[in-house]
Amino acid sequence: MISLKSVSHSYATGKTIGFKDWTIGHGEQWLLLGDSGSGKTTLLHILTGILKPTQGEVKINDTSIYGLSPKALDQFRGRNIGIIFQRPHLIKSLSIAENLSLAPQFAKLPVNEARIEEVLSSLGIAEKRNAYPNELSQGQLQRVSIARAVINKPELLIADEPTSSLDDKNAHAVLELLLKQSGINQATLVIATHDKRVKDAFKNTYQLS
Amino acid sequence: MSPLKISWKSLWSKPLSAALNIMLIAFGTGILTILLLASTQISDKLENNAKDIDVVVGAKGSPLQLILSSIYYIDFPTGNIPLKEAMELAHNPLVKRAAPLALGDNYNGVRIVGTDSNFVRIYGLKVAAGKFWQKDFETTIGSAVAKAEKLKIGDHFYGAHGLTGSTDVHKSHQYTVNGILEPQGNVTDNLILTNVGSVWKMHEEHDHHHEETEQPKELTSLLIQYRSPMSVAMFPRMVNETTNMQAAAPAQESTRLFSLIGVGVDTLQWFAVLIMLIAAISVFVNLYNSLKERSYDLAIMRILGASKTKLFVIVIAEGIMLTVVGTLLGVLLGHLVLQIIGSYQESGQAKLSGLVFMNKELYLFVAGLMIGIFAAIIPAVQAYRSNISKILSKN
Q1: What distances in angstroms separate CA B292 from CA B284, B298, B302, one per listed residue?
Q2: Do the chains contact at B306 and A78, CB–CB below 8 Å?
Q3: Are B272 and B301 part of one and the same domain?
Q4: ipTM value
């Protein structure tokens, strides 16, 4: 269970955004809606544990994440939160399998080759494990970044505008994969987007004003 | 996939700039290695050859030239000194031992030295085969001469007039090889030793063809060991002031010679340090620029759970890897080049070897490490302090 309580954030410019409280049950799938500039990215960063809010508390599975030491928070994030960005952002100097093995490595979990294999095949890109990022298409790369996000079986899966740079067909496919993967890995899913094509697939929405 | 492996792979994702940095470091270190090895080896050799000789007495002229010709056998002698006066000095109470030298002939560029048993004692020579020269025209040859000229005991050869060149051969007498010296690691490995009389006879005959006068007997120089430290102050002054000869101390002259070479060594050293400095800046610029491109990569690593310290380690490891690999290559390159130079050197007197390793080279590694840290510290601190939320929201 994830909860957001009386969180607000002040920017360096002096502007303050308050976020309404939010409680997400285990395994639920949510859509975070809001226009650009409404604080969507800020809220995602607060949820992810990389931006400490000026006020309020964020709890993931009874852990108040900003009560952790910076190092413990890094490790907590690595183990419990998987993030998918608008663009895949893989590390170019490493092969696909190596990119995926970074996730357990940095989270200080054992690297499980079978798990890498399993995730890659469930995303239909098993044959690319030894390829390098520049040999893959955008769609394939986005799959790899989904694989990287779910490989540690995180509690929370966050996707930031995962579909906005894709065409209809690919956007649909990625959405399908996200829903499917969050189901397979029993992860809570939060998708931040302003992409209208995504809306219909969700019943839970959190609207930023 | 340890942090070190990530650093390594990241370096090799840009092979050209990695290679450029490694090359710069390697050149700098290579030059320093060569200078270190060569100057140590040369000064060791210079000292080793002059080790047991306190002073050289010869004809007036340049003291350095006297030392070069009578200790290192590389320049022409300053002239001759009369035998009678030389013998008076040799029996001076300040002198413990004096070895006469009569130079003037060579065999294929190897100097033939007329001397006596005092020479053997001064250098502590031993024969590996055969025996020392006794009669006229008997010779004992250095180990390197035996090898290079393929001379064996019982072989005969003719000396040629002068210190080099074999145009004016003394056909009237032939030398015999009677003994071969054990390798000494000094200049005697490259000499042919005989008695003084042989050198005189060779030239009497030679001179008789031209002019019919009997000349007084002469020597080239005297190698002298002092009886006591007190002689150091008195003997050279006595020779220089009361005789028509000069006394020169090998230690002093080699120091002077080496300080002349030292200017060049210093210049090269600064040149090498400059190259290293440029290398450090190049590594810094390379890391700094790549950090800008990779800030997103590093942010992703943080998202995946890497701590700030880990990013610091990854970036600093890249700098250290570049410089340590460069240093390693540079040291190897230095040894290789020195060995190649050594193998092309003809004279064995100051032959350089690349197969000798010195403790001082460890300092080069320390220097390489320091340069790596120095060049990478700013980018590493930046990686450590980077605000990932800001980087990610820029997208």
Answers
A1: 12, 10, 16
A2: yes
A3: yes
A4: 0.87
- Domain spanning A2-207 has what CATH number? 3.40.50.300
Regarding whether B87 and B29 lie in a shared domain, the answer is no
Is B79 found in the same domain as B10?
Answer: no
Query: Judging by DSSP bridges, how do beta strands B245-248 and B55-59 pair with one another?
Result: antiparallel
Q: What is the rounded distance in angstroms from the CA atom of residue B386 to the CA atom of residue A188?
A: 29
Same domain, B186 and B60: yes
Q: Which of A75, A89, A98 sits opposite B305 (nearest CB)?
A: A75
In chain B, the residue whose alpha carbon lies closest to the alpha carbon of A53 is B389
- Tens digits of per-residue pLDDT, B285-331? 988 988 888 888 888 898 898 999 999 999 999 999 999 999 999 99
Domain for residue B102, yes or no? yes
Q: Say which of A45, A94, A108 has its CB closest to residue B393.
A: A45
Burial of B272 (0-12, 13-18, 19+ CB in 10 A): buried
- B394, closest residue in chain A (CA to CA): A41
Distance between CA A25 and CA A204 in Å, rounded?
Answer: 11
Q: Give the integer Cα–Cα distance in Å for B114 and B199.
A: 6
Q: Cα–Cα distance between B28 and B85 in angstroms, integer?
A: 54
- The secondary structure of residue B169, as a DSSP letter, is B
Q: Are residues B105 and B40 in the same domain?
A: no
Q: Do residues A133 and A147 make contact, with C-beta atoms less than 8 angstroms apart?
A: no
Q: How far is A58 from chain B (nearest CA, A)?
A: 16
Distance to chain A for B51, nearest Cα, Å: 59
* A129 touches B: beta carbon within 8 Å: no
Residue A75: its chain B contacts at CB < 8 A? 305, 307
pLDDT of B212: 45
Among the partner-chain residues A91, A92, A106, the one whose CB lies closest to the CB of B305 is: A106
Give every CB contact of residue A8 below 8 A, 6+ residues apart in sequence: A16, A17, A18, A19, A53, A54, A55, A56
How many domains, in total, are found in chain B?
A: 2
Q: Pick the last residue of a domain from B191, B219, B248.
A: B248
C-alpha to C-alpha distance for B326 and B52, rounded to whole angstroms: 42
| B85 and B25 share one domain | no
* A-B contacts at Cβ under 8 angstroms: 76
Q: Cβ separation of A48 and B1 shorter than 8 Å?
A: no
Share of chain A above pLDDT 90, in %: 40
Is B259 contained in some domain?
Answer: no
Asked whether the beta carbons of residue B306 and residue A148 sit closer than 8 angstroms, the reply is no
Whether residues B96 and B208 share a domain: the answer is yes
| Domain membership of residue B40 as a residue range | 3-46+265-394
Question: Is B253 a member of any domain?
Answer: no
Yes or no, beta carbons of B301 and A102 under 8 Å apart: yes
Q: Which of B1, B296, B392 sits opposite A98 (nearest CB)?
A: B1
* pLDDT tens-place string over residues B247-278: 999 888 888 887 887 788 888 889 888 988 88
In a domain, residue B256? The reply is: no
| Nearest CB partner across the interface for B303, out of A77, A93, A108 | A77
Return the residue of B nearest to A94 by Cα: B9
| Nearest Cα residue in chain A from B2 | A105
